[in-house]
Amino acid sequence: METERNTARRGVMLSVVIPCYNELDGVAELHRRVTAACLEQGPSYEIVLVIDGATDGTREAILQLAEKDDHVVAIDLARNYGHQIALSAGLEFCRGQRILILDADLQDPPELLGAMMTKMNEGFDVVYGQRLTRDGESWFKLASASMFYRLLRRMVDVDIAPNTGDFRLMNRRALDHLNAMPERYRFIRGMVSWIGLKQVAFPYERHRRFAGTTHYPLKKMLLLAVDAMTSFSIVPLRFASLLGMMFGLLGLVVLGYTLLEWSVGNVLPGWTSLAAIVLILG
Question: Which residues of the chain have pLDDT under 50?
């Protein structure tokens, strides 16, 4: 991982962490709108752009921004690790006392930062975005997203609010708790829910993508759901235990039948002992 920075590494009031993968057509607009939102909160801010193995020129565009704008930090990952790992890298590196997580597609408006900061001033550690609408998304995308969240709420052992993504504002206390978690397979929204603290929903209207197409098709959503279930649910462990018990009982039944056949002499020589060893040792 390489980092491009023009300022000394010191604390700032606000960090905006944005994973970027093949977002060339929207990088300039992303920088403009995020910068405007940050400046409304004061001059002490950084925009952390994590280049997640982009192949369309996004990397070069972000590195140029980092050279021109002292507030931009470019984290250049060696390859495409995926959204959650890229986001984790940015969260580990950022320095802000308050941290906004944002997607590069601008579906979550950075202009909501001011209102989210005001909400956090009421004493909350985490202000998470909760989507009221999802503009510009197909019925299939809406249906698969609904299935995804229903599956999560049924399977995982943490209370993840429906219609939420990673769009949220956290304070340094919440981020320190999050960064202390050792999980290898990261599911940020579940991890943030798990740490507890004072959290509140922030309802908002989600916009259509500024440019390009989604980088989260059904396959990636299913993989994310698997990571969530294996990280935050004992259901897979219970299923594996139940399956093991069923096979164990089946083995005992077959072993009993094998011994019965042996007792009446209805087997080939040596077959019973071989079958017993296989059934007992698996």
Answer: 6-8
Q: Indicate if 241 and 203 belong to the same structural domain.
A: no
Q: How far apart are CA 258 and CA 271, in angstroms?
A: 9
What gap in Å lies between CA 15 and CA 132, rounded to an integer? 25
**Cβ(270)–Cβ(258) below 8 Å:** no
Q: How many domains does the chain have?
A: 2
In Å, the largest CA–CA distance within the chain is 90
Give 98's strand partners: 14, 171
Q: Decide: residue 263, CB within 10 A, 0-12 exposed, 13-18 middle, 19+ buried.
A: exposed
Q: Which of 128, 104, 105, 108 is nearest to 116 (CA)?
A: 128
pTM of the model: 0.71
Q: What is the CATH number of the domain that holds 166?
A: 3.90.550.10
Angle made by CA atoms 85, 214, 141, in degrees to the nearest 5: 110
How close are the terminal C-alpha atoms of the chain, in Å? 45
Token pair of 25 as six digits:
């057509």
Parent domain of 90 = 2-139+160-212
